[in-house]
Amino acid sequence: MSEQQVTYAAAGVDTEAGDKAVELMKDAVRATHGPQVLGGVGGFAGLYDASALTRYRRPLLATSTDGVGTKVAIAQALDVHDTIGFDLVGMVVDDIVVVGAKPLFMTDYIACGRVVPERIADVVRGIAAACSVAGTALVGGETAEHPGLLGPDEYDVAGAATGVVEADELLGPERVRAGDVLVALASSGLHSNGYSLVRKVVQVAGWSLDRHVDELGRTLGEELLEPTRVYASDCLALVERAGVAGVHAFSHVTGGGLAANVARVLPQGLVADVDRGGWQLPPVFSLVQRLGGVPWHDLEGTLNLGVGMVAIVAADAVDGVLAHAGELGLPAWELGAVRDADPAHDVPGTPDLVAGTKGVDGGAVRLTGTYRA
Question: Which residues belong to any copy of the PurM-like N-terminal domain (predicted)?
Fold first, then answer.
């Protein structure tokens, strides 16, 4: 038997560093707490007073979980960690708001090879800041040190959130009708999907992250790290203004791209027509396509191409939704329209007709024209 003493610290886990990280982040976390949050920071479980739900006639709880994907590799390469939290929160709460639910509270999980308190605190401060934008309480989290599994400067983040919506105000395919209009809500950039493709393109091109790109007006790394736009509060504001009679559904444009995600919120028998030339592509998408010679069908099935969220609204609500989006500082435009499917024309498997994605047997989206790059 070895006489050498093996300690937890010798195994690569520094519990004191973890405690320091909590001290550095706790003020930012507390700032997301309203009177509904009980117990503060550091408990085994986060507590949220749900007594307000008794005012609902039939409250439905909505939940979602997600991560940031390989975008964390950009944050790690640039040693900038206070923006990745917006990507995490956006990926989670904006999946909840598509059904009209208000995100109530969220928890996060960070796995790392080595706890650097300042770095972990930066990540959580970003999560807390984004939760404040979304009107969501950050009620708990966990940081786990995984030496030997992750490199000393590597980490990954994930989160989960819970929201609530009145049953008779639930948004989704059941409300969508022929004649409805698609309203695009602009993305802030790449958001948090498709970074495996983007990173491969950058690698093949041999570009460095500190390279200044004139068409972007900044370095490549700064563009790739642009935080995801968090839509939750704005979407809820649009619904409050137009009502559920005006806003019928939302589609969060994440993995799979625009058409695939819109098709998920259309009922069977309906098709949304979208003209690719209906908006100017932000420069980063054209750059990725050109730099990597990426086929357009591959690009549009991977990246958001400038549209981060889509509202499907009644035709008589379009002007009001566009005007209110402008008041919120949210760029928006008419993207397309919903119609009854034509059995002779809208045949599954037809090029440019997207349906049956994510296991959802719903409607379809037909893409026409070419992009304005």
Answer: 59-165
